[in-house]
Amino acid sequence: MKIGFIQFSPVFGAKEKNFEKVEKLLNNISADLIVLPELFNTGYLFLNKEELMELAEPKDGKTCDFIHNLCRKKNCAIVYGFAEKDEGNLYNSAILMSARGIIGHYRKTHLFFEEWFIFKSGDLPYQVCEYKGVKIGILICFDYIYPEAMRTLALKGAQIVVLPANLVLHFCPDAMVTRSLENRIFTILADRTGFEERGTKKLKFIGKSQIVAPDGEILIRVDDDECVKVIEIDPLIALDKKVTPHNDIFKQRREDLYFH
Amino acid sequence: MKIGFIQFSPVFGAKEKNFEKVEKLLNNISADLIVLPELFNTGYLFLNKEELMELAEPKDGKTCDFIHNLCRKKNCAIVYGFAEKDEGNLYNSAILMSARGIIGHYRKTHLFFEEWFIFKSGDLPYQVCEYKGVKIGILICFDYIYPEAMRTLALKGAQIVVLPANLVLHFCPDAMVTRSLENRIFTILADRTGFEERGTKKLKFIGKSQIVAPDGEILIRVDDDECVKVIEIDPLIALDKKVTPHNDIFKQRREDLYFH
Predict the structure, then answer these.
(1) Distance (Å, whole) CA A112 – CA A83
(2) B152 Cβ partners below 8 Å, 6+ apart?
(3) Per-residue CA distances from B104 to A133, B68, B71 (Å)
(4) pLDDT tens digits, one per residue of B8-62
């Protein structure tokens, strides 16, 4: 299976420009699964809820249409982060799309910093979805700091967990190595890069998108340039939970002792 | 509070030599809490259960006496790993000792590799104990790979989690940074160093003992030499679970979504 990510710097509020950039980066790329950053179509630094309401879309909105067409054209699945509007609620969401339509939908549960003022914390369960026979779980950015989130997906059979992100702190890439290792799964971190300056606020995003194998090996980690990377993996490896011949780390979990 | 670790290469089966080495390393050292490696008194590579039965001790055995005397002499607390014999059962255990006696007792729950053939998996709960008003949790070596273990201790209020270890793989030191970060606690990894060659078996231990702060900063990490290191920390920092002013990562856990 060929899996990869697009790392780029979205232009705030300029959806068409961001669509163009993604389409251009995918030109000549062949892959089964591509992960885009969190809020790839709008950028990150919303100054208030009104601005977010303006740019957010229902999950079957025009960003959905753009990605769906791209999936059909490229014959691949794409995970993308976007601001979701649903009955007046605003979520920091991600969708796993294939040529056939939406396969998976997730709303970020662990919001970061001032996101609490404009987004609602997600209400959908951590669920795995299947593409080409491979089980995939979705988390978004700051979710990475909660081991329970990815553990829940891994216990449900996820072989790959994707993490669209807009990272401003430097901890996540190394922490994702631990997440892969402790769950024996592949992880794809698709971060954005570049700066955003809006009003009095300014953020620098770190890039460092990466793919990690179930044994903790960093298969690829980039710096902070715009790029698309695709590698070939065998997702079946993620079904084997043995660290040593005598350590199936899932079977040896001690649920009798955890959390009480 | 002054906390530290001793990293050294125990001589297999030679308890008195190992006692001497620890006492010598602690000479001129002043600390509140010192952590010794896993199985510090016996070494690691037991060839069979009979050999382990011979060297294991009840928790109030002579190693306990040695450490208790050392705690009185140095006016400090010491965590040490040892092979425990209790009613015919053998555990890979650790004790937190002070000048007043035993404060904490833990039996490794997640055994590694061939340990499964000679030790029994621990049956005691993950419990925090208190020394000088600071809450301390104990795990041993491979327990590190299970986020649930340290999370359970942190949710019970642990400000410091100590990890006596005999590491042969290289993942643990970096994973312990994630553990500190996701729980906002101090972690002390006290690893052994050196080689062990017994029968046809040979192991190299990696050293890399370290202390990590609640914000993920590696306060000290050594290489693979024998040494004792002590640093000053403020354990109160570990009571603050805020990553940002709007992210109390404990209060924002989503127990409604984890593990189901």
Answers:
(1) 14
(2) A257, A258, A259, A260, B126
(3) 48, 13, 14
(4) 999 999 999 999 999 999 999 999 999 999 999 999 999 999 999 999 999 999 9
The model's pLDDT over A98-144, given as tens digits with 9 standing for 90+, comes to 999 999 999 999 999 999 999 999 999 999 999 999 999 999 999 99
Classify B135 as helix, strand or coil. Answer: strand
Q: Which of B141, B114, B93 is nearest to B46 (CA)?
A: B114
Between chains, do B145 and A110 touch, taking CB under 8 Å as contact?
no
Nearest to A145 among B109, B121, B182 (CB): B182
Give catalytic status of residue B38 as yes or no: yes
Question: Which residues in chain B are contacts of A177 at CB distance < 8 A?
Answer: 174-175
Q: Which of B152, B244, B260 sits opposite A258 (nearest CB)?
A: B152
First to last CA, chain A: 40
What is the rounded radius of gyration, in angstroms, for the C-alpha atoms of chain A?
A: 17
Q: How far is CA A138 from CA A30, A81, A146, A163, in A?
A: 22, 10, 14, 6
Q: Could you tell me which residues are beta bridge partners of residue B242?
A: B248
Residue ranges and CATH numbers for the domains of chain A are: 2-248 (3.60.110.10)
A165 in Cβ contact with A187 (< 8 Å): no
SS3 label, residue A231: strand
Q: How far apart are the first and last CA of chain B?
A: 40
Q: Alpha-carbon dihedral of residues A223, A224, A226, A227, nearest 10 degrees? A: 20
The chain A residue lying nearest B108, using CA atoms, is A254
| pTM of the predicted model over 0.90 | yes
Q: Is A102 on the interface with B (CB under 8 A)?
A: no
Q: How far is CA A121 from the centre of its chain?
A: 16
Q: Would you say B192 and B178 are in contact if contact means Cβ atoms under 8 Å apart?
A: no
Instruction: Report helix, strand or coil for A85.
Output: strand
Q: What is the ipTM of this complex?
A: 0.96
B231 contacts B188 by C-beta, under 8 angstroms: no
